Structures are given as C-alpha cells and as structure tokens.
C-alpha cells in the first residue's frame, strides 16, 4: 500500500505526501509536503523552508510562472518549480517554519523561533528527510529570498546529509535588508504583512521580540520616543503599527530598531559563513543593490567550493524562479548526483555587464582589474573628470526644496550629466558619492541614482545609494576609496546651515556606457513612486519619505569637490 496520493501535473504523474509531521529536537513538530516520482525508489531531496506557507508554494503546480508587472505575480511563491524538480529526479520537500503554516511552536523576531535558531530547525528537518525511505540520503536546498537565507542558516549548522546549497536572491545582513543607508525600506513590510504583490507570512503563533524584552511601561516610552522622528510620525501606517504593536509583530520590531546592533546581528547569515564548508552557489540579479552587496559579502566570507553569478535586469525574477533552474540543476547534478558536468572547471565568478550585454568571468569580484576615478559635479548640471576651479563665490550651489509628501505629490530631483561617451566605457564594482551639502533641518535623506541614458531617450538604472543624513558617520578603518562603510550604530543630528560632507555608498554594479550614451546622476531626498525602474518592483518597494520640509544646497566648487567615485575597468569593453 502506497503512502502517497498521485496527481497529474502537465502529463507527469507526481507522488504527493501531504502534511508530514517532522519532529524537532525540542519536541515541536513542523509540517511538510514531499513531491516525487511515483516509482518505488529513493532519490536525492531538495528542501525548501520558509514561513510563507507550503500550500502557497503548491500553486507552482497549477499557475504558470508570473513576472512583474503581472498582477498575478506573488513575491512569496519562491520554493521553485515542483514539476521540474520532480522531473529532474529529486524529491521536492516544502516545509513550514515553526509558528507558521501547519507547523507548531512560535516565531519570535528575526531568524529566531521561540528562542531556537531557525538554522537548528532546518538541520533537524534535513536530517529527518535524509532518513526517509523515499530519500537516498543526499540533500540539497531550494528557494529564493527568504528560502535562500534559510539555506545559509541551515548550512552553518552543518547537517551531515546536506551536500550543497544553491542560493538565489538571498538577504543576509538584516539591517541592510530593512534600512538602506539608514533609510527605512518598506519591502519587508510587504513580505510579512502580505500586501503589494505578496501573500506574506502564514502567521499562526508569531511574537514581537521587543514585546518579549520590555515591559509594557518600558515599551510605551520607547514607542513615544520613536514617534518623535518626524518621518515616522508623518506616515499613517507606521503610527498605526506603533500604536497597535500586536497587529504586526515583525514590522513593529523593525520600525522600533532603526539603528544597527545586536538585534540585527543575532544569527546574521554572514557572520555564520565561517561555519559553512559545503559547496555554495550564490546567484543574484542586478537592480537589487542591497542584495548584490550582501551576496558579494557572503561570497567573500565563504571558505569552501563556491560560485558567484550576478545576472541582468529586471531585478525581480518570476515566481517561481524558473530563470535560475538550469544553473541550479547543473550544480546539484555535480555535487549531489556525482555527475562530472564540468561546472567546477568554469570560472568561479560570472557577471552580466549591462549595456554591452557581455558576460565577464574571473576568479573574484570584480572579475576585472578596476581603478576608481572621480567624476565631479560641475555648474550647469554637468559631470566632468576635471574638478571645478572656481570658488564658492562664483560656483553657486545647486539646490532644491522638498515639501513633505503629506502636502505634495512632486518629488524634486537634481541631475548632473556627462557629455556623450566617445568610446565604450566599462564600470564594475562599488562606488561612492561625496556630496558637500547644507540643509536647514536636523535630518534628511540623500538618494542618488545613476542612469545610463541612451541617445534615443531610453535609460537604464545602473546603481543607487542611500544615506540618512544623521547616519553620516564613517568607520574610517573600514572605508576605502570608492567603498565607504557606515556603522549605523547611532544617529547624530545635523546642525542646520552647516556644510557637511556626506559619503553615500553606491551598490555594486557592472555596466558599459556605449558610444553616444551619457551617465546621469539624480539626487533627491524622496524617490519617485513610479518610473522606469520602480515599475519593475512591487508597489511597496519604496523608502520612507522625509516627513519635514527641507531645503538642500549642494556645493560643488573648488573648496567643496562634490563628486562620484566610480570603478572603471583598466581596459574598455570590446
């Protein structure tokens, strides 16, 4: 008598074992489904684990893959193409984290479940799967974003039967996932609450870490202090979250922790990387700067066999992420099935270069030798390799006044542009924007975006940088030319009317400016809610606007050399 039901998926018979109960070492049981072929033989397994709900992942069997901006795109369907996994000869196991879906236990805070590291649960699930009669004892993992981060947490626990992982679009440093340059990002709200194209977490028993740590009286004082931030106080959703914290536990914790520190570093996947010794393939697409940054940081921290693949736009893959399946199965066929397909004979790093559409390979990031050069902000909205010679009395600052979005729909933008490039010019790596600025308030945001502007008016976002002015402090020991590091461990209000140098980190990128194209830098303190780039993102993927009126003056004279510091390759693209 079989222990599964059989379903038809596009002409393929699939065996489904529903609602398996998987015991954890502390007595909690997790719920999981297993999909496989119908023949009575053990197979290697690919495990997916998240709080988004295994029933949601099952829609991959009945709904064709969706890409943005399809209204059917759901950012939480991330466990992969079930039918393809089965067709490639693997068992696809999809589990619910504790405190979500059909699992027991409770979730508390980030990457933590009732005081239990989520990697510990992943370890126990993997070892249970490996011991089942339908598994041959060889296990990998599957899934992007949250599922991808879970792979890193699992690998750091070193389950004996986990042979390799393939991580696409993972997020690692959780502070950088939720605050870009100190500026709050709303996307984590969507993933947790379920809005703007996301179904969200399948909550069953979720608790706020802040409510666990503080008495109601202490928490009330902390909430009132947080509401003193005009940006927070001006945004209705945040006021609602802070006044009714039991409604949105995770989002409440994020809003309440605006500085980096122990709350974010606890079980940060990057800090766990030295514990990982199995083969790791990391894949990320350009356009999601914070995840490109974290992916490269994780890659550099890994010691075992590894690959890094940085892909092209658009920044949001289809759901499920079918674009990466061919690479994933090559990786697992080699490391799990033992097939010598040559993948480890290929270069470790592969990067898609926007503009030229080339794929550049090498042994490290960036795969080519680069040198940082400065492009100076000049009068008449020009960018030039030559610095400004005039003093402040002649090179008057550029400026803009931004009213809060509570009273206007218009986002003011300053822009500077190079002359058209005469030859193809390639850039690859991290960068920085040094802005000498004066504001008339004690805080603002600086949002800088670099565009490749074609002669016909089309343009492509190359990279971006964010900095909350009160987070301008640099770690001088970790900062290098074109690669600034902000600790974000305290906020220092700005003295209104004082000229300060603000150094924005520009996320890693790879792009070639073709002949006739211009490089355009745009600066604002809020971001347009819809443009050529943001249209590719879910509706909630924007940053908290500034909640006060601010006048900005950007100095770019001989004494205040505002500039971009960008990574040019030593040889132009062919």
Task: Give a verbal description of the structure.
20% of the residues lie in helices and 30% in strands. It has 574 residues and is of the alpha+beta class. The strands form seven sheets. Strands 18, 19, 20, 22, 25, 27 and 28 form a seven-stranded antiparallel sheet that branches. A six-stranded mixed sheet has the order 1-2-3-5-4-9. The chain has a five-stranded mixed sheet with strand order 10-14-15-16-17, sandwiched between helices. Helix 3 packs across helix 4. The N and C termini lie far apart (63 Å). The model has no long low-confidence stretch (mean pLDDT 92). It comes from Actinomadura parmotrematis. This is CocE/NonD family hydrolase. It holds the Pfam family PepX_C.
Features:
alpha+beta; Rossmann fold; Jelly Rolls; 2 domains; 7-stranded antiparallel sheet; 6-stranded mixed sheet; 28 strands; globular
Task: Sum this structure up briefly.
InterPro entries: AB_hydrolase_fold (IPR029058), CocE/Ser_esterase (IPR005674), Galactose-bd-like_sf (IPR008979), Xaa-Pro-like_dom (IPR000383), Xaa-Pro_dipept_C (IPR013736), Xaa-Pro_dipeptidyl-ppase/CocE (IPR050585). The protein contains 15 helices and 28 strands.
> Biggest sheet, in brief?
7 strands, antiparallel
Briefly note the CATH topology name of the largest domain. Answer: Rossmann fold
Shape: globular
CATH homologous superfamily annotation of the largest domain: Alpha/Beta hydrolase fold, catalytic domain
**How much of the sequence is in beta strands?**
25-35%
What is the SS-derived class?
alpha+beta
Number of strands: 28
The CATH architecture of the largest domain is: 3-Layer(aba) Sandwich
Number of helices: 15
The CATH class assignment of the largest domain is: Alpha Beta
Count of spatially separate domains: 2
Helix coverage percent = 10-25%
Spatial separation of the terminal alpha carbons = 63 Å
Mean pLDDT: 92
What is the CA-based Rg, rounded?
24 Å
Low-confidence stretches: none
Keywords: Hydrolase
Pfam families: Peptidase_S15, PepX_C
Domain Xaa-Pro dipeptidyl-peptidase C-terminal: 329-565
GO molecular function: hydrolase activity
């Amino acid at each position: 008598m079989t222990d599964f039901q059989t379903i038809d998926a596009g002409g393929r018979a699939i065996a489904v074992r529903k609602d398996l109960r998987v015991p954890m070492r502390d007595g909690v049981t997790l719920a999981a489904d297993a999909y496989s072929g119908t023949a009575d033989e053990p197979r290697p397994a690919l495990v997916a684990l998240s709080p988004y709900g295994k029933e949601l992942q099952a829609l991959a069997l009945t709904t064709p893959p969706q890409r943005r901006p399809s209204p059917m795109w759901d950012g939480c369907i991330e466990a992969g193409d079930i039918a393809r996994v089965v067709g490639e000869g693997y068992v696809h196991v999809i589990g619910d984290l504790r405190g979500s879906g059909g699992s027991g236990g409770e979730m508390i805070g980030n990457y933590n479940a009732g005081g239990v590291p989520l990697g510990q649960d992943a370890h126990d699930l993997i070892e249970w799967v490996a011991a089942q009669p339908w598994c041959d004892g060889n296990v990998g993992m599957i899934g992007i974003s949250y599922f991808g981060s879970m792979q890193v947490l699992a690998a750091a626990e070193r389950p004996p039967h986990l042979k390799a992982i393939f991580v696409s679009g993972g997020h690692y440093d959780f502070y950088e996932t939720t605050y870009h340059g100190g500026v709050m990002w709303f996307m984590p709200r969507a993933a947790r609450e379920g809005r703007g194209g996301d179904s969200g977490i399948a909550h069953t028993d979720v608790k706020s870490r802040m409510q666990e740590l503080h008495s109601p009286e202490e928490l009330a004082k902390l909430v009132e202090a947080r509401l003193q931030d005009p940006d927070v106080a001006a945004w209705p959703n945040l006021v609602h979250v802070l006044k009714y914290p039991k409604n949105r536990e995770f989002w409440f914790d994020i809003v309440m922790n605006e500085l980096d520190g122990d709350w974010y570093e606890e079980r940060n996947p990057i800090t766990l990387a030295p514990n990982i010794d199995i083969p790791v393939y990391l894949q990320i697409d350009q356009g999601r700067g914070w995840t490109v940054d974290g992916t490269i940081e994780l890659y550099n921290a890994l010691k075992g066999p590894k690959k890094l693949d940085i892909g092209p736009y658009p920044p949001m893959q289809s759901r499920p992420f079918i674009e990466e399946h061919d690479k994933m199965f090559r990786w697992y066929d080699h490391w799990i099935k033992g097939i010598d397909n040559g993948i480890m004979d290929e270069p470790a790093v592969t990067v898609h270069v926007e503009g030229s559409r080339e794929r550049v390979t090498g042994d490290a990031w960036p795969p080519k030798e680069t040198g940082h050069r400065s492009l100076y902000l000049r009068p008449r909205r020009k960018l030039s390799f030559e610095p400004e010679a005039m003093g402040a009395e002649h090179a008057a600052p550029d400026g803009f006044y931004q009213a809060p979005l509570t009273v206007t729909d218009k986002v003011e933008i300053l822009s500077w542009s190079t002359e058209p490039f005469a030859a193809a010019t390639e850039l690859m790596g991290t960068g920085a924007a040094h802005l000498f600025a004066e504001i008339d308030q004690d805080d603002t945001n600086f949002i800088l975006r670099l565009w490749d502007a074609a002669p016909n008016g089309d343009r492509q976002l190359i990279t971006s940088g964010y900095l909350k002015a009160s987070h301008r402090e640099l770690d001088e020991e970790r900062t290098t030319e074109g690669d600034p590091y902000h600790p974000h461990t305290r906020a220092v209000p700005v003295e209104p009317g004082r000229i300060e140098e603000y150094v924005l980190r520009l996320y890693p990128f790879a792009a070639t400016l073709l002949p006739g194209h211009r490089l355009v830098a745009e600066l604002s303190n809020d971001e347009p809610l819809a443009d050529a780039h943001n249209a590719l993102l879910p509706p909630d993927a924007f940053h908290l606007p500034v909640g006060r009126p601010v006048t900005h003056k950007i100095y770019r004279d001989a004494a205040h050399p505002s500039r971009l510091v960008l990574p040019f390759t030593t040889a132009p693209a062919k």
